[in-house]
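Colleagues,

Please find the record for the two-part complex below.
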Amino acid sequence: MNIPLLAALEIGSSRTTLLVGEPDENGVMHVVGKGCVPSIGVRKGEIVNFPNVVQCVTQAVTKVVAEKKFDIGCVLLAASGGYIGSLTNYGSTPIRSHDHVVSQDDIDEVQELAGSVVLPTPTLARMHTIAQKYKLDGQTGIVRPEGLKGSTLGLGMLVIHAERGPIENLQNAVSAASLDVEDVVFSTLAASHAVLSQEQRDAGVAIIDLGGGTTGMVAFADGVPMDAWSLAVGGDHVTNDISFAFNMPTQRAQSLKHEYGSALPGGGSERIAVPADFGISDRTIAVNALRTVINARMDELFRIFRDRLDHKGLTRKLGAGVVLTGGGAALPGVAELAQSIFRVPCTIGTLQNITGLEEEAHPESFAVPAGLLIYGMKSSHKRHGEQGGLLDSLRRRLGI
Amino acid sequence: MSGTGSDILIVGIGGAAIGFATRAAALAPGARLACFDSDGASEEAAQQSFFLMGAARCNGRGCGGDAVKARAAAIDDIAAVRDAVSGTRLAIVAVALGGGFGSGAAPEILKALRDEGITAICVATTPFAFEGGDRAAAARRALPLLESAATATAVISLDDLFAGGGDAPLADAYAAASGTMSDVLTLFWRLAAKPGFITIGAERIAAIASSSSGKMRIATAHATGEGRATAAANALLASRLTGREVRLENAEAAIVGVLAGSDLRLAELTEISTALSARLSPTCHLDFGVILDEEAHDALSIVCLLFEKGGAAEADDVVGGEPAKAQGTTSERSGRSRRAKSCDPLASSSSGARFKGTEGTIYNGQNLDIPTYQRRNLPLEK
């Protein structure tokens, strides 16, 4: 067989997901294998119990292998956590030719200059270096500057960086589960490949991935990523707040969140009967109180990201609004709350150009691994001529 | 929860605490025990439950009171700790602070428990006053590390474990203090492990401890004969638990377990519940458990775990005061730790909560791991 399969792994704080996808010639990714297991040993995106995480990865792989008989040897890995941030570095170079026409040498030089950023601390490693738009003298937003005339060529480069330790821990956990890591991708950047169209990117859009232990964001303007950030606050914090407010185990808090939770306050006089368990007698909880707790957390979270976008001068550039993904996007009222805070249209992301996940109750919660598959496919197309193709490499490693 | 206590582990760290733990386990048939020390001499007490730490570093002869060496010894053999505690849901950890191994190794061992997802309730003793400033200082240095690693910590002064007068022989004082500490551990284990008429259980204790501020007190009281319920309740109320400065009103959650024989009467439970409820804050969540223990004969015991509001308690001294027929013991956290966990949202951290053990998510000076509604002081409809 010669099927170009890709495997994507997300070790989330609440769920470990492995997807295997098969791209077709039209650029559509068909998910042909899925293994999901609850994560144990991950808090706020970081591994706190290595053997448990290895076990989770192994179980996810086993599920896929048992179901589809794939031989998975290599994965694209998503990473998210408070240890991930970004910075933009600008480089510029004078146009050296006598006729002042931009040449490939000028482009190579400015790319090298913009990309040669020294990260703030030696513990940081770069995950992605993404070229933004070129600037030629006073003209901005240039996509391809070759052939244009000017005196100085500039380029902004978004560098997404992460602490080495947590990333290496993730890689080591995957290796311990007998898998190779093809690439490590910032999870929200991966999700953006699954839910954002080029039109949205061009118009300006922020994707916010509401994960279990972390929330990530990538903001696009003029078609390119302008900012990327991750905060170690997620759905687990909502659950923890409920648990704390009503003095109940987290599992009970989790089920209350799913059954009665809303990001919007309210609930009238409705009360929830909480059955006796673990020695606690029957009691009731006001829905209003439950939603007050959830609303406070989500309101705070969105305001933090809005402040970040405001600070970067990006809020006014979000012509296509904010797109929400991840498990937290399933919370009722979350888009309405986000819209009231960001003051731009906010929607729940829908998977684009991906099949095989239609039956899921909340497909947007698979945005990260699904986006990883698309990312892998695009990387493969990009590299195909240069390095013999990522897919070929993956195919070899997948043993198919 | 299994109901057999198989997922509950009594842990002793260091020579003195191993003594407490082994005596407690002996009084709790079926209890799992794990003891850790760098001194091979402790093996005699703990037998097959003993794990020698840092043999390559200390040669089984102990760490000579060097807490740094003890910490290194624990790190050397932390894998053995993880293996020993495997399958545990709730660990009741005894530590005697002031010496070498307990002070140095306990934080590392508690961290290992935490990393294994185990709820660790730490009961730590501080030295007798006569033991001098160095040992007291060693205990003070170790305490914050202990508290940051454990799910909840109770601190008991050895002086307070022995309620006798200053004329008592030293050996008697040690024996009495040790006996009382073991008694506290045993009752705690029974409360968590024994299926009861009204069960509390390990999971419930773990849930409350995990959602608490990490501040905890543990108290026990016993009485026998006629009027035993009132006597035991009064012992609890008159002891350090409700002494001059320590206020029951500060508890945001209380777990009260009554252990008695099959002759326990409903009226006795009502007496105890009424007496305690009258002193607890109206907002305090009270879990009341009853364990019928055939070995209790005509004795009635109360074990009380108080989880305090963050920053609510003041520094205070433990004071005694037990009725003639009844004995009561309480523990508390040190004043230093209370100050460290004040109302300041940044300082109080989320210790004890779901994110305990992970680095706090700090943003604009706020610890985002602390519930937002709390930091915003939002009232919740009852």
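The domain at 197-349 of chain A is CATH 3.30.420.40 (Nucleotidyltransferase; domain 5).

Comments are welcome before we finalize the supplementary table.
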